[in-house]
Amino acid sequence: MRPLSCYGHGVDELPGLTSRQRELIARWLPDAHLVAEHSWQLVGTTVLELAGPSGRVIVKAGDAQDHHIARELRAHRTWLGVWTRTGRAPLLLHAEDAAKLLVTRYLPGRLVEGDPAQDAPGTYRQAGRLLADFHGQHRELAADWTTRLRDRVLGWLAGPHRIPAPAVRALRAEITRWEDGEDVALVPTHGDWQPRNWLIDEGEVRVIDLGRFDLRPAVEDFARLARQDFERDPRLEAAFLEGYGADPREPALWRRTLVTEAVSTAAWSHRVGAGSFEQVGLRQIERLLA
HSE (CB half, 13 Å, CA atoms) of 257? Predict the structure, then answer.
């Protein structure tokens, strides 16, 4: 492949980027070439793998509606040292907030999702230990967390979705009974902690994609595992908890977290046309209300 400089600013070589984003990439990585596109087409984030004399990198670029790049930059600049110091997360090389653009060092490894490592308890033991290190960096209390959850769920229910009307009525009735004012501990969370955001390389688990980073209760990083991997194999849950060192899933907060996760999954997936994800959310709602 020819380097980006051979294409002016790489306009023909780099799909999905704005002119400003292409200009920055040509400046930062003048001799790089495109290796692969890894974009997840359901969101407005372009993910490109480039290679050049200094090695391989990952480029992430957001569109006008994107809010994931800002979250990811916040994570890289403030919280990822606990992982990057040991090579467990990608190192930030370049970034411009206004352009919604970042470049990280390429992190070698196979995606755990779909790999035999997804069924190995050792993978989850490592993932639990990594998450405990990440969560353990900071803790602050929020008295309005339940209010935030309620507003989020009611907002999704007020928009377009295909959640059955009886389920909507039951959900609304439950949500109105949630009590406000309780202090809830918030910690740094990944936001999408599951095998599709883990890599495995020579038996070592590594972490990618901090686009949903935020300060939240620790239990939020358990929700997606609980509905899929823990449900299909309890050994994976046991290994994860062993690695994490505790189980933070206090019943009331855990229930509210699962309700919020189920409703947002069903409604968001319907909005973007992701039918398989929508069914995951609808089934989760059905189980929660059973």
Answer: 21
Q: Could you tell me how far CA 99 lies from the centroid of its own chain? A: 21
pLDDT tens per residue across span 175-203: 999 988 889 999 999 999 999 999 999 99
Q: Is the pTM of this model over 0.90?
A: yes
Separation between Cα atoms, residue 44 and residue 57, nearest integer Å: 20
H helices present in the chain, as ranges = 19-28, 68-78, 81-84, 121-135, 145-158, 165-175, 223-227, 229-232, 234-244, 251-272, 275-289
Give me the residues paired with residue 140 across strands. 186
134-184: pLDDT as tens digits: 999 999 999 999 999 999 999 999 999 999 999 999 999 999 999 888 899
Look-up: residue for tokens 């069924």? 119
Question: What is the CATH superfamily name and number for domain 111-289?
Answer: Aminoglycoside phosphotransferase (APH), C-terminal lobe (3.90.1200.10)
CA gap 95, 215 in Å, rounded: 22
CA–CA gap between residue 62 and residue 20 (Å, rounded): 12
Domain ranges of the chain: 4-107, 111-289
C-alpha pair distances (Å), 146 with each of 83, 84, 247, 282:
30, 33, 20, 22
- Give every CB contact of residue 142 below 8 A, 6+ residues apart in sequence: 148, 183, 184, 186
